[in-house]
Design a protein that fits this description.
294 residues, homotrimer, globular, 17% strand
């Protein structure tokens, strides 16, 4: 994965065992991470563990300036969370250094790391996938291929990984409420217009432009990046204690018959696999609605 | 107004006596309200009373998911406030459950209600009309026919119903100051660009798109909507105690000769009726400026 | 400079001695300021002193409604700060009435003044030049000729005059981090898209449109402007005590070898004069990066 020799003394690093993400150290100041969990890059307890280990590596990399996240699957950046029929599996993950549950812990720490994190969004990033990109510092979306969305409310769930905290501050009340409550898909141009991403870039230019930005950042003074970012963090990041309540709500949804019935219906229709449902989840989430006698 | 039978046992509800707004219950989860106060949908003490009663109905409707506001007059959504030559008439309205004066009370409660409120803006929404749409959760503007504005400063008044609190958080300092201080009209595309509305929609598509959004929301789990919205409220709503000071300033303007002279001049030119002044109020509000010997 | 006679009794006002800025009193309610410090409108200790005096004049002008800032040089609005090879020269300027160092003091007071300040941005406004326009209330950018940027991080410095505080609130976390950390130039259209300026205006329309806005504001009731602005200030301005820490960081950069070496290289390449480096500083700031053996 690297030809620079930088990893020579790192054969025992955690990444050797990762199965959902791959780390490529381009240099001491520039890393890339590729999401590669077929068929649709769902996020599971395993992904959360690997990302937690990654964030620890980032925090220890004192010369690292920039880390780019992209996907091995051009149709799916990160589909969404998959509880693998066992919500306890995720709930059992140990809390992180912040004291918060693992998913909240790793996303909050990524946002505060003295490094510029960049999401290169090609394909679908919904639910926890959208939450992950919202925790990155910069977001660039493929104009033709990015699809974003927080579909949870359509499935009867409360989004648990921080999008109410992060979207409200990023795009303002009206657009945050639309994304979260109407719960539909939106493309790169809409994401750009709403301020959800920095901007949309033509798909055939996306990799080149992000490479230029990353190469530029890799040359800069690490302390200047770290200190300047810390001042922006102070103004823009939600306080940690704002985050856990919604995650508790998300988990409690699994004890309510309505959300469980909607989730079961979506699984029946093709959730978590490469299906028409997954490709058009924003439009088709309404099919989860129970038919009631009126 | 309804053919669903839902209102059968509601013949004594307040809405039977309303004269400025009409309520249409499409279903238990989806209502529509039509503003219909000829000639230009000004907001008066009567409108405020009826809207206060509406907000109480909304708060009691435990299955309601979505409420859409539109206008019977395609040229005027809600013109602006009309004190009917007697500012005391409005000031005498009883305070609401929040303890705030009626207009602040009902708009703050609408924003916090566990329901998605949608403003379908066709025609002019200025002054208190703009304040009302800012209190709604989602705003969609007709690309060709929406006109928004806070003209008050041009008439010598301080906007009193919360736009400094709401616009500042929605569109940022620079654009909020422009809307409030330059006090000119702006159209749907500018409103979209500034983030004042979610987006502008071609006029011949506006009703269809809002109907699709409302029908979608009507099918969703009520608790998921209510809980998710509450987290966004926590981050984005102004605290109630930020609101009353500007309303006091607005009312005190009626004791100052400058604003009174400007208001008298605007009334002479056609304020509150369907006139060229009302149609082009942003441009013509400068005619309220007293001519001084220089 | 004025033919209105308004300055007749003002021959002893500070502006007579100014050499970097010129004040034109169009009327009691409307002033214009022209930046004119060849060759590229750098900001030096002298500029800071003159702007401090200007802000004091603004605060005393009880009938002033609007002040427009533009540049005598269509290629450079305000290049950026120039410490004139002596950082102490600026640090020695007396603190202002807020207790903050002069640059923070005058920009914070300009933002709070009961007057609408408008930046008419034609040419480059980088570093402290960008900080100055961010302290103005309204910003309009020439579509063809405006260039904005915070290049400091590219040169190894922490921006010290408030852009982390002001940009974060104006354009949101993602775009603020991009502007500050990627540290590249951006044009008027990008500034409009990101919300950094109110809007971009075709260069041949810029002067006319700003003149129309200023003339309009000049006619309005001063108290209505002042009171309305104060409520927006309350929501949108950073607290003064958020500002000094980053300025301390900026100053400490001059004691670190990395930033000093980058700055020396930029000076060698043409910083502070009308050079290709100054014209394309966003692209060329990477040339400040020391070459290291890899």
């Amino acid at each position: 994965m690297t030809s620079t020799g930088l990893n020579e003394d790192m054969t025992t690093t955690p990444e050797a065992s990762w199965t959902h993400i791959a780390l490529e150290r381009r240099s001491r100041s520039y890393w890339r991470v590729i999401f590669d969990h077929p068929p649709v890059n769902t996020i599971t307890a395993t992904t959360v563990m690997e990302l937690s280990e990654l964030v620890e590596l980032i925090e220890r990399a004192t010369e690292l300036n920039v880390i780019v996240f992209d996907s091995a699957n051009p149709d799916f950046f990160l589909a969404h969370y998959d509880v693998e029929s066992d919500p306890m599996k995720t709930a059992a993950l140990p809390a992180g250094p912040t004291g918060m549950p693992a998913w909240l812990d790793l996303t909050a720490r990524l946002s505060r790391a003295p490094v510029v994190s960049i999401a290169s969004i090609r394909g679908r990033a919904r639910g926890a996938g959208s939450e992950f990109v919202l925790a990155c510092d910069l977001r660039f979306a493929s104009r033709e291929r990015a699809v974003l969305g927080q579909f949870e409310v359509g499935a009867g769930f409360i989004p648990g990984g921080g999008p109410m905290a992060r979207l409200s501050r990023l795009v303002g009340r009206g657009r945050a409420l639309e994304i979260l409550l109407v719960a539909d898909d939106f493309d790169g141009l809409r994401a750009e217009q709403y301020g959800d991403v920095n901007r949309a870039i033509a798909d055939d230019r996306l990799d080149t432009e992000i490479e230029e930005i990353a190469a530029r950042l890799a040359q800069f003074d690490h302390d200047a990046i770290a200190r300047t970012k810390s001042y922006v963090d102070h103004v823009t990041l939600p306080p940690d204690d704002e985050l856990p309540a919604a995650l508790t709500d998300f988990r409690q949804s699994f004890g309510r018959p309505g959300p469980l019935a909607r989730l079961a219906k979506l699984e029946e229709l093709g959730l978590n696999v490469d299906s028409d449902l997954e490709r058009r989840l924003g439009a088709r989430v309404v099919e989860a609605t129970p038919q009631v006698a009126s």
